[in-house]
Specification:
Keywords: Kinase, Membrane, Transferase, Transmembrane, Transmembrane helix. The chain has 2 domains: about 100 residues; about 190 residues, Heat Shock Protein 90. Helix content is about 65%, strand content about 10%. The strands form 2 sheets. It has a 5-stranded mixed sheet with strand order 2-4-5-7-6, covered by helices on one side. It has a two-stranded antiparallel sheet with strand order 1-3. It starts with 6 loop residues before the first helix and ends with a strand.
Amino acid sequence: MKIHIDKRIELAFLYISIMGIAVRYWVLPDIRWWQQALLFIVTMIMLNAVWIFHYVFNHWLNGRFPFERSVTKRIVIQLIGSWSVVKTVLIICSMLVIHRIVPSLSESFNRLTLMALGVGIFLANVVISLGFIANQLFQRWQADQLRAAQLEKEKAQVQYDNLRNQLNPHFLFNSLSSLDNLIDDDPALARRFLQQLSRVFRYVLQHKDRELVPLETELTFIKNYVSLLQTRFDGTLSIRCQIEPDDTERLIVPVTLQILIENAIKHNVISEAQPLPVLITTDHEYLTVSNPVQRKKQIGTSNGLGLQNLTLLYQFLTPKPVEIQDTDNQFRVRVPLVG
């Protein structure tokens, strides 16, 4: 156990010791300088000793009588136990100081003075003990908050990973179906399609354990992904990027763009009569993915958790929220750029 005394505590002890010099000059005008110096040193030693005792006693109680067992019992033991020890030690030290250093005070040291000293020590002890108790409870509360936040983050990460794992089989199935049609009709295009498909899944596998990736890396991945989609939808889906050059080093969660584009594909009609344009832009603070609303009458499989999980995950990475703007004509998702 490492004993730590805060600088503010030491400054408080120094202030009390200096005030003691002033009080002694007021009560004992004839006191000598060597007595003052000696009493100043004794006061500093006693204050530090009391603080160290409380520190050690509090640490010992954390092991023997933790708050989890009984808060009331712990507080009573800490208050009464510390007061009994500190009172006994300080009274003995006070009597030694009076008889050895300032014998002129022995005449005024009586039972009333002893009772007043005991009450003063008790009140000071209560303040110190309650300070340690409050600090201990506050630290435990902070630890619980951090633990809860970490569990929420892990939960969001698991949900996000599940979402990615759901996307990949659907995407692979659709891509293989498109590839099957291309093999006989256009073998050269089928070969390029397969190469792009391998690059897409290589990216997903390489970055599946990373929390964040540079936007530039994500955009490189999305070019191959977009090529696959344009082949799959035969030109009825267009994806355009307008990225500020300074934003390419900012960070986002891997496959964020894939999730947002797949969300647009899932909920909107895409046909020769109604092609779907998707626009990806940045404004130094946010990455925005927008598309006109062409809602499908019926959506195959959607539990509505995709954007919710993505939003929850970003809450643990940046104080800026994910913004979802849904109007009659336009659907827009704004994802904060990190870093």
